[in-house]
Amino acid sequence: MNVSLQLVESTSIATPVLVVLAVDVAMGDDDSPLPTLLVTADAVSDAAARFLTSGEFKASLCESLLLHAPSGLQAQRLLVIGLGKVRNLGPDAVRKAAGTAVRLAKTRGIRELTVLFPEDHALSDEDSEALPCKVISRAIGERMLLADFDSDTYRSDRKDESMQSLVLAALSSIQKATREEIEIGVHEGNIVAAAQNFARSLVNEPGNILTPTELGKRTAAMCAQAGLACEVHSTEKLKELGMGAFLAVAQGSAEPPALIVMRYEPEYAVRAGSPAGSPVVALVGKGITFDTGGISIKPSEGMHKMKYDMAGAAAMIGAMQAIAALRPAVRVIGIICSAENMPGGKAYKPGDVLTAMSGKTIEVMNTDAEGRLVLADGLHYAKTLGATHLIDAATLTGACVVALGKLNSGLFSNDEDTCERFLRAMRIAGESFWRLPCTDNYQELIQSQIADIQNTGQDRWGGAITAAMFLKEFAGKTSWVHLDIAGQAWIEETRSYIAKGPSGVAVRSVLEWVRLFSVL
Ligand code: BES
Ligand code: ZN
Ligand code: ZN
User: Fold this and answer.
1) Does any domain span residue 88?
2) For ligand 1, what atom is nearest to the CA of residue 467?
3) Is residue 520 one of the residues assigned to a domain?
4) β-strand pairing of 229-233 with 165-171
5) Which residues contact 150 (CB under 8 A, 6 or more apart)?
6) Is the CB of 455 under 6 A from ligand 1?
7) Over the chain (520 residues), what is each successive 10-residue block's mean pLDDT?
8) CATH number at residue 385
9) Which residues constitute the domain of residue 323?
10) Among 126, 139, 403, 509, which one is most buried in terms of CB atoms within 10 A?
11) Which residues neighbour ligand 2 (ion) by CB within 5 Å?
C-alpha cells in the first residue's frame, strides 16, 4: 500500500480520522504548555479549541487526543497528536507523531486515515528555519507505512488489520513549488518504507523457513521485480572462489550457504559504460539465518532470537530495492553472505585454521564469532568485483550493545571522508549510529600465534572493536564503513509509533549514503 497525496479545497474532509499535529509553543521549561495546532484552518481550530485551552492536552511528544464527531467538520473523528516543545521540533518528532497516529487508529480497528499537512509557516518559529516540505512529507508518509507493519505473520487467528487507506492532505491553495516538494517527499517515503518493510518481513521469518537458499530465492524475486541483476551461488562457487572463511561457517549445517550478488547500473553506465574513476559502491550484508554459535554453542536462553542474525543482509537487500526505484547515478553491488551456523558433525571447530579468499589465514578461537568470517570473504569479493567503497551491516557483537545500548548502532570506518558522508546520510535518514574507534593500535587484539590473525580477542574487552579490526583487515586500503546493528535490529517493546519486532535499521542510512555518491 502507498500513501497518497490529496489536494483538498478545505479542511472539511470526509474521512474516518483526520489527523492534525500540534506543538507546545511555551518557551520556558516552567511555563505552562501552550498547545497549538499546526494548521490555521478555522474549522479545525474551532473543533479542537475547547480541549486545547482546557489544559488536559499538553501537546507533548506522541500525546494524543481523539475527538468523535467534531463539530463543523465532515471527518468522523479528529485526532490531534503532539510534537512536543517547539524548540525540539524536527523531522524526528514528526516521524514519531505520524507513526503514533497510524498505530492508534490501527489498534482501534480504524483502517483509513488522513493526515493534514502542516502549513508552510507552521513548522518554523522566528529563531529556526522552516523544515523543508519535502522532508516533512517524506517523514509523515514513510512513518505511516512503517507504523502499519506488524510481526504476527504466523498466527492462525491473524486478521489482516493493515491500513487500507493512508492519505496526506494538503490545501490546494499551496504554492506550486511547495506542492511539487510534497509530491517528491511522498513518493520517496513510499519507496523507502516499502523497502524497509520488505527488510523487516525477511528478518521476521523464522530460521526453518528463511534458510540461506530461501533468502536467495526471495532476493532474486525482489530483484526481478525491481529491475536489478541478481545471481545466487552456493557451495561450488564458494569453493571456486576460495572463500575458506565463509565455507567454514556453513559446513556444520545441512543447509547449503548462499552468496547473493545484486547489481544496480545507473543510466549513465547503461548508456556509455562507466567513466574511469567513477565510484563503485558495495553493500555487504551478514546473512546468518540462524546462529546457534556452532561448537562454541550459545546458551539456550534467548537463542531463538538468533533468527535475526541476518538483519544486516536484509538491510542491504532492502536498500538495493530502494536504490533500484530511486535510481541514483552511481554503480552499486550488493553482496549477501548467507549461511546457518550449526554444530553439526562436519562443523568447524575452535583451533581450526582457515584460509580466507584474500589468502589471509585465520585461527578460529570461537565459532560463535562467525559473522566476521563470512563478511571477510564478502568484503574481499566485493573488491575483486571493482568496489571502490565498501559498507557492511551486521548483527555482529553483543559487545556493541553493551557499549552503546539500544539507542545507537555501532559505526566504524577506516576513512574520514567516507565516514563523514555516512554521518550526513544518517541525519537525512533519521537513524542513530555512534562512531567507535578502529585505529591500528587495536590490531594486537587479533594477533595469532599460528596464523595471520584470529577471529576473537584474548578477553571480552572491546569486543565490538575487535570484530571491526578483523573486518578492517579485509577492507584493506579500500574506503570502508562497518555498521554493527546487533542492538537495534530487533525492537523488544512496542512503542506508540512502532510495533515490536524487526526494525529494518540501516536500510535508510545505507540508501542515503549511496545517494550521496551520485555523480550527476
Ligand atoms: N550474532 C551474534 C551477535 C549478536 C548478539 C547479535 C546479540 C544480536 C544480538 C554474533 O555472531 C556473536 O555471537 N558474537 C559473539 C562474539 C564473541 C564470540 C567474540 C558475541 O557477541 O558474544
Ligand atoms: Zn555468533
Ligand atoms: Zn552471529
Assistant:
1) yes
2) 19
3) no
4) unpaired
5) 161, 162, 499, 501
6) no
7) 93 93 89 88 85 91 96 95 92 97 96 89 56 93 98 87 95 91 97 98 98 99 98 98 98 98 90 80 99 98 97 99 98 98 98 98 98 99 98 98 98 98 98 98 98 96 98 98 98 97 98 91
8) 3.40.630.10
9) 228-515
10) 509
11) 291, 368, 370
